[in-house]
């Protein structure tokens, strides 16, 4: 990353509150960086600031640099990362945003991998208190590095399995639980809902025809204390593959025995 003397600070838009000072390489300018992300975000009602675009640029460069040494993502092209990782992450706002009642919500990203969707949401909403959970040590190393590189506060990086950590201090502690590409819905429900506070939400990214998958997940969702609120379609031209956000509200405590250990949520999902 070029962040030396030739990397100018990108000034904020007029009236923009500065939460951090970010730099990008001098070979870029603010009107060239992340154009696809900027256009897509505007369709979501988001006007990304110069500093936010700088952070997304740093994120991209760190992601592609580290991806040469470990398998973080199969998508590395500049235009595709903007859409398939960053913009896709931001579509969560179609189903959830921080509210005046909870200005500093606790958010956890289960099986975060390279930090999506959690990190993009943190860039846009720096006030959230974010936890990133993954069971792969190499990805945890990358996330800790990225956290320092982006200079974002209130991020906890957690190494472990959801089946185990949901029985510890993280149980029923979060206002929002995120899952992207984690598992089929019956398994996903068991691995995510236990982390959610009563009245909190789980938002899961899915795509394609998920009618049968959702039908199979009804029992798992209710068993974990959840209630399906909506299937929110992502109607952006950038995503022609029928993407949808599965939105679940936590309406009752999760029974103590869930989630089950020893890989049972994957091997023997609760279906029907």
Q: Could you give me the name of the CATH homologous superfamily of the domain at 92-267?
A: Vaccinia Virus protein VP39
Helix share of residues?
A: 25-40%
Beginning-to-end CA distance, first to last residue: 50 Å
Rg (CA only): 19 Å
What shape does the CA trace take?
Answer: globular
Q: What's the tally of helices?
A: 9
CATH class of the domain at 92-267: Alpha Beta
Runs in which pLDDT lies below 50 for 5 or more consecutive residues are: 1-28
Strands in their spatial order, largest beta sheet: 3-2-1-4-5-7-6
How is the main sheet built?
Answer: 7 strands, mixed
The secondary-structure class comes to alpha/beta
Number of strands: 7
Task: Report the CATH architecture of the domain at 92-267.
Answer: 3-Layer(aba) Sandwich
Account of the protein in words:
Strands 3-2-1-4-5-7-6 form a seven-stranded mixed sheet, with helices on both faces. Residues 1-28 have low confidence and may be disordered. The chain has a domain at 92-267: Rossmann fold (3-Layer(aba) Sandwich), CATH 3.40.50. It is of the alpha/beta class and 272 residues long. The radius of gyration is 19 Å and the shape is globular. The protein has helices at residues 35-43, 50-67, 78-90, 118-124, 137-150, 162-165, 185-192, 211-223, 264-267, and strands at 106-110, 129-134, 155-159, 174-180, 196-207, 226-233, 243-250. Helix 4 (118-124) links the parallel strand 1 (106-110) and strand 2 (129-134). Helix 3 (78-90) packs across helix 4 (118-124).
């Amino acid at each position: 990353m070029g962040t030396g003397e030739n990397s100018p600070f990108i000034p904020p838009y007029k009236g923009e509150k500065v939460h951090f000072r970010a730099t990008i390489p001098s070979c870029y300018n603010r009107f060239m960086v992340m154009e696809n992300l900027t256009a897509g975000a505007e369709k979501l009602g988001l006007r990304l600031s110069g500093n936010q675009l700088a952070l997304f640029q740093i994120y991209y460069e760190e992601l592609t640099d580290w991806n040469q040494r470990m398998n973080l993502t199969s998508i590395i092209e500049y235009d595709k990362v903007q859409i398939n990782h960053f913009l896709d992450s931001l579509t969560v706002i179609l189903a959830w945003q921080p509210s005046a009642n909870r200005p500093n919500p606790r958010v956890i990203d289960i099986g975060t991998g390279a930090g999506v969707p959690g990190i993009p949401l943190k860039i846009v909403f720096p006030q959230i208190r974010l936890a990133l959970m993954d069971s792969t040590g190499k990805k945890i190393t990358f996330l800790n590095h990225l956290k320092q590189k982006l200079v974002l506060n209130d991020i906890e990086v957690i190494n472990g399995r959801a089946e185990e950590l949901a029985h510890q201090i993280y149980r029923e502690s979060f206002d929002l639980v995120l899952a992207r590409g984690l598992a089929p819905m019956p398994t996903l429900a068991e691995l995510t809902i236990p982390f959610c506070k009563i009245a909190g939400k789980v938002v899961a990214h899915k795509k394609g025809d998920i009618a049968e998958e959702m039908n199979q997940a009804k029992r798992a969702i209710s068993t974990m204390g959840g209630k399906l609120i909506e299937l929110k379609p992502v109607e952006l031209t950038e995503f022609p593959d029928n993407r949808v956000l599965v939105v679940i509200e936590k309406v009752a405590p999760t029974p103590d025995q869930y989630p089950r250990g020893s890989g049972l949520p994957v091997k023997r999902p609760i279906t029907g």
